[in-house]
Design brief:
The protein is α+β, with helices and mostly antiparallel strands and about 300 residues long. It has 3 domains: about 1-65, no CATH class; about 115-240, no CATH class; about 240-295, no CATH class. It has 10 helices and 7 strands. It has helices spanning about 45-50, 115-130, 135-150, 155, 160-165, 165-180, 195-205, 215-225, 230-240, 255-270; strands spanning about 1-5, 15-20, 60, 70-80, 90-95, 185-190, 210-215. Strand 6, helix 7 (about 195-205) and strand 7 (about 210-215) form a beta-alpha-beta unit.
Length: about 300
Amino acid sequence: MVRFRQNKAKKAEKDTRVVVEGLKFEEIELDKFLFLRKPSGTTLPSMLDDTAHESEGYILLDGPFQRTIFIGGIFIRKEKETLADAPSPGFHYGYSLPSKISINRDRTLVDDEKTLAARTFDIWKRAFKSTNSSSSSQALRLYMDLFEKQKQCSDIQYARANLSDNPDIAKLLFKELKSWHGPNCWFYDGDGDNATADERIIRRSLDKEPKRIPSVIWQTFVYLDIVMSAEQARRKAFGDSAASDLGKGGSSAPPFIQHTLHLFKCFLSLHLRTRRIAYEFKACGKHIDIDILLRRTSETLKKTPR
């Protein structure tokens, strides 16, 4: 059993002492418990000499960890203290007891990995939605760092499912990424098979600055229709381009274009189906790198009774 106790004989703030009943201090295996922390400074000798005062033994949490007991899960706290022994200002991680994470008697998790990841993401969401914009931005940066530095953690293993179930958070993440890299950036799957081709299309055809993002984030953005691929954007730009007057084949068109259009019309007239094809010549940028864009139309064929 673990409980707090304030001992007036010791110079400690309220609720800083953890009492482990039934065990002597030297019998406690600290590494087995997330909620126990070795005291710093000269606390240890003073504790060992105080056996007459407290027969069970106790552990004093030091410095910045006063009034906090760390048991499971992950908590994010913004540190504001400026004391010499306090953590540096900003977001800090630790172990806490979130309300939705189940822990059994042995301080091990009851939930499966997927459920744990969802519960942990609930904690992330509270940080992402902070009313303080700088705190929200910093939390999003810390989350993105996991995709590069902790790829095997459950936060990343189930990131696509968690973000897909929370499209508002995914859109917030996209907005934050755009603010980091500027309005002229274009995201692409940096780990995908077409990464090299995507980067070329982004630079040459879209005149944007390519920015790679992890595959998990990219796939989530695509699933939620937040982004489109570079190839999709290039085809859309081609399709949205204005029609070229040269494609009309008037007398003002150069002889070569008139001859090409004549041959093309002859080719289309060879079959009944090709005669139905509608076409248009586009006046698009020189780097669009698309010559033909097919748009399929559906036809309903009725069977002729014999």
